[in-house]
From TrEMBL:
Pfam families: bPH_6. This is PH domain-containing protein. Keywords: Membrane, Transmembrane, Transmembrane helix. Residues 11-39 have a biased composition (Basic and acidic residues). InterPro entries: CFP-6_PH (IPR019692). It comes from the Bacteria. It comes from Pseudokineococcus basanitobsidens. Residues 1-39 are annotated as: Disordered. Signal peptide: none annotated. The keyword Transmembrane helix applies.
Length: 175
């Protein structure tokens, strides 16, 4: 289970450069590049690819049904197209799941809901056994799923959960 509390090294990285001098050994460019790497958006890999494939197949299938099936009423043809468009729209929304970090907090866009969090609101980052995606324990007692980091992505999901926990620790007022 990938679990990290703010203020603990979540990625196995102790914050020091190769020379052991910490940020002083990296220079401004190294620190800036590391912050940019940490602040990249989170997005699922497999689910996103599958969603786009299903969206294309739904549209193509609806078009083929509309054109190739003989003796179908015009209303049914319109129905094929509407169902194909609805499936494609749902899949596009699935492909658009993401979490975008910045210096102030995290913008989470899940399948149906979006939420903006300040870093101080995030208490813990969890990717537990059996959980399909990362969960954030929040200071108000809520738990927020972050569908952008999905267990189905395997080892990269663990790495992304550690990266998110590192961001929480980096921006934590407690750290």
């Amino acid at each position: 289970m990938a679990r990290a509390r703010p203020g603990t090294p979540a990625d196995g990285h102790d914050g020091r450069g190769d020379d052991g001098r910490g940020d002083a050994g990296r220079g401004d460019d190294g620190r800036r590049q590391e912050r940019e790497r940490l602040h990249r958006p989170f997005a699922p890999r497999r689910a996103r690819a599958v969603a786009w494939v299903v969206a294309v197949l739904a549209v193509v299938g609806a078009l083929l049904l509309t054109v190739l099936v003989p003796d179908v009423a015009a209303g049914d043809r319109v129905g094929f197209l509407v169902v194909g468009a609805l499936v494609a729209a749902f899949m596009a929304r699935q492909a658009g799941v993401r979490a975008v970090p910045d210096e102030e907090g995290l913008a989470v866009r899940n399948l149906f809901l979006s939420r903006r969090l300040a870093w101080a609101e995030v208490v813990e980052v969890r990717l537990g056994d059996g959980q399909p995606w990362v969960q954030l324990d929040l200071s108000d007692g809520d738990v927020l799923a972050v569908m952008a980091v999905q267990r189905a992505d395997g080892a990269s999901a663990d790495a992304e959960a550690r990266r998110l926990a590192t961001l929480v620790a980096l921006h934590s007022p407690r750290g």
